[in-house]
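=== RUN LOG ===
request id: a7f3
mode: sequence -> structure
chains: 1
length: 252
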Amino acid sequence: MNDAQLLRYSRHILLDEVGIEGQQRLVDSHVLVVGVGGLGSPVALYLAASGVGQLTLADPDEVDLTNLQRQIAHTTARVGQAKVLSAREAIAALNPEVRVHPLAERLDDARLRDIVPKVDLVVDCCDNFATRQAVNRACVQHRVPLVSGAAIRLDGQLAVYDARESSSPCYACVFPPEAMPEEVRCATMGVLAPLVGVIGTLQALEAVKMLAGLPSRLVGRLQMFDGRGLRVDEIGLSKRADCPVCGAGHLG
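=== RESULT ===
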């Protein structure tokens, strides 16, 4: 790191848990953020502010006026712009040293097979079940850790799946792909604006910790956040032997 970087990240470097070595790991890291809406906005901004060297942002949508109630990476002036380009502008204003690779597309299995092996960690901030399953398959196949978050109404969820650990369940262990749920979206159900900030910021926190070399205690656990009562409940997750993604006979 140069002198300007040492100054910019000095509050990280002062932490015994991070230090110069941990900050250098962040600078050398590459993260894929899937979705730059309500969750992905704080994720992308905090990863950039923290000094993650490269961010690949994937989202097929454009900024809409209804997004601005909660998607803080975007502005009124950028309504109609691709979200990944809008987020790139926000990141450039915050930390121009971060290299941003915008992908204005919905990622499928083929694209994920190409992208995921090139990154150190994936943060899933998307809002549809099929993409979540595809992201999980790629992370398991290439043994890349996955930080997953979700938020609707006043309720949120957070989990970390780390295929580098043999005992870690994957997303499909918890939410089987054959049990396709009815899609629940903010457009029809609503969401309280700060809730996505809470969950997205926690996703960024877990990502930064792992990239800097700190362990995540959320591997194998699911946190459920109740925004009404400011209560966090947590349950243990088990790896399924018959999981179609990471179970015996499926993990290559």
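=== NOTES ===
The longest strand covers residues 146-152.
The chain has a mean pLDDT of 94.
=== END ===
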